[in-house]
Amino acid sequence: MSARSARFLKTATLAGLTSLALIACTSNTPEAKKTDGNATQAAAGSGSNDAPGQKVKIGFSAPAADHGWMGAITKATQAEAKKYSDIELIVAEGTNDVNLQISQVETFINQKVDAIVLLPFDGAALTPVAIKAMEAGITVVNVDREFDSTFAARTTILGDNKGMGISAGTYVCQEMKGKKDAVIAEIAGIDSLPLTQARSQGFKEALADCGLKVNNRVAAEFTVESGEKAAANLLQAAPKIDAIWNHDDDQGVGVMAAIKNSGRKEFFVVGGAGSANVMRDIKAGNTLLKATVIYPSTQGADGVRLARLLVQKKALGDLVEVEVPRLVQLYAPVVTKDNVDQYLPTAFES
């Protein structure tokens, strides 16, 4: 293992611990007690953060569910809220209309909700109204697409786009086992998006660490149709391929259709985002899919849990810090046949 890979794995471990902190929570109710030095320290109470507490009214708004991952965000958020008797979740209809989403947030403000969990269609455009909510005393939790100002949210929950590329590239390097002439292909998402650029940059850096590079690259548009067209073009342009990383499992449905039509089998495929159908194929082992890299669709659900803790003035029990962190970045693990059962329960359907 190279020095860079070792550093990456160390960072991944720390990120994983942050994600686990979202799951294993204990109470943050302080109890003052004297130490031998007559200093006062806070000790966590014996209760659980999951025990019913102060009622919390949460507004949730996200873009339209025109993509499997986005649909899973809203579904997981609603399912998580139902687990808590002290949460009232108000879900706005998903929309890609920025002005309508701004109006939804203003409605939440007028309803005097305690918190808003917001996945903005456009982070910059939703920043002013998010600041307005914060100034009204409403706790805002920003999900996935960042606002332009730190004053717009108390806490932000992000996936790790560059980390996805690093994870995918590291896995490909491991599978190549030192094969320096390996031909690596990449099917990206929409090239103009920063998230696509970050994924590609991470992939490039990880491959460089083991002496490889992206030999053939095409871009799609996160749709089945665009994935099939891009993959067909790639296969026509590259007579030999050893591995393909496809950024998105939804467009991957089209990618795999194009591969099947080509009849080619000399390479393996790594997916992206972590859909259930890809995981089932990985588990079955009867396709060229050997792995996928997770971009968590639990971010909205995590946002609801953190909003609840923030309003109830609790913290993450696995941290010494007595406040919920300002930024939580979720890990981008590689799912293979060896660990697929661990990730299937939270996977989204393409």
From TrEMBL:
Keywords: Signal. Residues 58-314 form the Periplasmic binding protein domain. Residues 37-51 have a biased composition (Polar residues). Its main location: other. PANTHER family: D-ALLOSE-BINDING PERIPLASMIC PROTEIN-RELATED. Coiled coil: none annotated. GO terms for molecular function: carbohydrate binding. It is found in: Cell envelope. Residues 1-24 form the signal peptide. This is Ribose transport system substrate-binding protein.
